Amino acid sequence: MTKSIFSVIFLLSISTSSFSQGFYFTVGYGGNNTSLEGVNAVVENYNTTRTWLDKKMKPFGYLDGMSVCLGTGFNHAWFDMEMAFRGQKRKASGTDLNGNYGTRHLRLRNNMFAMTIGGIGGENNTVIGGGFRMDLGQLKLKSKVEYPTQKEDWSKVVESHLVLRIGPAVKLVIGDEGGAAIALTLNYGFDLLNPNVYRWDEAINHTDYPWGPPDTFKVRTNTFGFSVAFGIAGAT
Predict the structure, then answer these.
(1) This prediction's pTM
(2) Pairing assessment for the beta strands 101-109 and 155-156 based on DSSP bridges
(3) What whole-number distance in Å separates Cα of residue 32 and Cα of residue 51?
(4) Is 192 helix (H, G, I), strand (E, B) or coil?
(5) Comparing C-alpha atoms, which of 21, 80, 100 is closest to residue 231?
(6) Model confidence pLDDT, tens digit, residues 69-83
């Protein structure tokens, strides 16, 4: 949470000098339908190797959470910055071979800092922008196991992985100058790094891949995202 607060403060501080003609600041909800085949290979192995599960773990795919965004438009140019907090939880439960009933929780996070540069146009109180967006963030997995008489805290599953995406974005902003605004955003991102999360499988499923990372666990986090946000619009 502390990192998130400092990220928002940083976003605001570097943007105050950028306002030229119009600007907006919004806070809202966003979601990403994300390709996570490599991560879901870990989930599939978890379900397959634990035949005693009463409730199997579902695959990951839709990551959502809060978005904080600040943008400006001048001379038909558009610049937009966003902190997007995205994640999803999954769990599985059952009575193991030792007769102990427990629940495994996994939490996948993909928080991102995004920048969009493009063109903007419109009239009256409606503005639409289009351009290219870059997302930079981390793919992080945390885990905990709970028993009726014992609960664990969340712990990080070995290393995190850097995620870098680029792609088109479109934003619609409706609002009165110096008043309330609503912003709708759509974007598509192409993953440029394609991390391999085989060490997550080794940690969660106690496997071993001494010959190298299997392609099964490669993650191409291409994503289709959207956000709906409310805030203020103004001009200088």
Answers:
(1) 0.85
(2) unpaired
(3) 31
(4) coil
(5) 80
(6) 999 888 889 999 999
